[in-house]
Amino acid sequence: MTRAYSISAEAVAAERARVNEDLAQVDVSRVIALDDLELREMGPTDVKLRILAVSAEHNIDHAALADTVNIAEIRGGKIFPGNSAVGEVIAVGADVTRFKVGDIALTHCNGEPDEYGYPITIWAYDKPDSIGWYGEEAVVGEWQLVSAPLDCGLNLWEIAALPLRAPTAYHLWRRALGIFRLKVGLEHLSRLNVLSFGGGVGELFLMLAKAEGHNAYFCSGSPERRKALEEMGIVGIDQKAYNRFASRDDVKGFSKECRTLTGGVGMHVVCDMLRGPVFAAGIAVSAREGVNVSAGWQLARSVEYNSAALSLKQITLDHTHYETVIGCSAATELYGTVFKPTIHHEIYSFADLPRCFQEMHENTQTGIPIVRVADDLPESVAAIS
Ligand SMILES: NC(=O)c1ccc[n+]([C@@H]2O[C@H](COP(=O)([O-])OP(=O)(O)OC[C@H]3O[C@@H](n4cnc5c(N)ncnc54)[C@H](OP(=O)(O)O)[C@@H]3O)[C@@H](O)[C@H]2O)c1
């Protein structure tokens, strides 16, 4: 038995009733609750982890609001969420080869790879029977673990920010670049203009672009997050100066700034994890042959576009989800050299995890939010915590 956070369909319904279905008033901290969880028996290919730290992920917001699907209800009334963790190996099954007791491991959340490795489902979300890692201990298959690069130069909290977001960004970037290169080869253009909107994934996407020598632009409403990226040479654009694209004039103003920044060319690659009003703004600033890539729908699931206009400009929309299993390992190689995440100034305690999620919901955090789960940390991470 371990302590782990759950989201129940009952709690979702109670909170929706409390706010008369006005989702803007939902308090996520009232929906996610500390629970008891019976861990499954260890099998021969399983690893038991003591969770050290986790990052808060936005899909919990969707689960608590039930604004896309009511995932707790679909999953039989309750989910144990959490698909990004750093843990200490405390037991291994007889057939486990890559880990031993005492090792530090990261989780990935590809719940069920299809024949080409792409996830059909996400672990601890829509993968049936999957149990997540917002708990004190977990039993996971060895295939779900990646060795933690403790010598990458990041501290433990920065490493904890990356297991879900870095593979997502890595996949988005290699897809977007591959598609652009299908249209425009290196002999024509080597340096691209790359734009992303706010959020941890978008920030990591721009770090990849910058590391490969491209011009990178970050359009965010958060001065702290813009400042952190500006220190890496990524140009900040204040999204609030354009009222988060509330009107066509706001989009026009943003387009004008992007044209000025890019010498009239526009953005060759746009990463938009948000949709909603952000989508139209991203399309408006696209260069000819541009690629607009997304793996998120934080503000809206549906988008509308003028197919003729996009055809004339040769613009491609691409939809990704999460990395392949081997791609997650490849993304981990870039921790510290390319991926230097901005983390929120407070490291939340395990007891404060619900508050962490409410503050994420309110969009008041200054970087990726991290929760410390274990009070006592192993010697192997003492130097980086
Ligand atoms: N498919 C996948 O595998 C995958 C993986 C990770 C995330 N996601 C999804 O991608 C989305 C972003 O996740 P994330 O982890 O990158 O984000 P995050 O670190 O949780 O940050 C959320 C961002 O949302 C932006 N935001 C909040 N309210 C906004 C509004 N009204 N208008 C415009 N921007 C707003 C904020 O940008 P500002 O800086 O402008 O305030 C904030 O930085 C989420 O929907 C998440 O579920 C998908």
What does this structure look like?
α5 packs across α6 and α5 packs across α11. This protein has 13 helices and 16 strands. The strands form 3 sheets. Strands 3, 5, 6, 7, 8, 15 and 16 form a 7-stranded mixed beta sheet that branches. The protein has a 6-stranded parallel beta sheet with strand order 11-10-9-12-13-14, sandwiched between helices. The chain folds into 2 domains: 222 residues, Quinone Oxidoreductase, Chain A, domain 1, CATH 3.90.180.10; 153 residues, NAD(P)-binding Rossmann-like Domain (Rossmann fold, 3-Layer(aba) Sandwich), CATH 3.40.50.720. It has 385 residues and is α/β, with parallel strands linked by helices. The protein is globular. α12 links the parallel β15 and β16. It starts with a strand and ends with a helix. It binds NADP nicotinamide-adenine-dinucleotide phosphate. NADP nicotinamide-adenine-dinucleotide phosphate binds next to α5 and α6. The site of NADP nicotinamide-adenine-dinucleotide phosphate (NAP) has 28 residues, from α5 and α6.
- Helix/strand order: EHEEHHEEEEEHHEHEHEHEHEHEHEHEH
- Level of helix content? 25-40%
Tell me the name of the CATH homologous superfamily of the largest domain: Medium-chain alcohol dehydrogenases, catalytic domain
Q: Examine the secondary-structure arrangement and name the CATH architecture of the largest domain.
A: Alpha-Beta Complex
User: What ranges have pLDDT less than 50 throughout 5 or more consecutive residues?
Assistant: none
- Mean pLDDT, nearest integer? 96
Shape summary = globular
Radius of gyration: 21 Å
Structural class of the helices, strands and pairings? alpha/beta
Q: What is the number of strand segments?
A: 16
Residue fraction in strands = 15-25%
Number of helices: 13
What's the end-to-end separation, in Å?
A: 27 Å
CATH topology-level fold name of the largest domain: Quinone Oxidoreductase, Chain A, domain 1
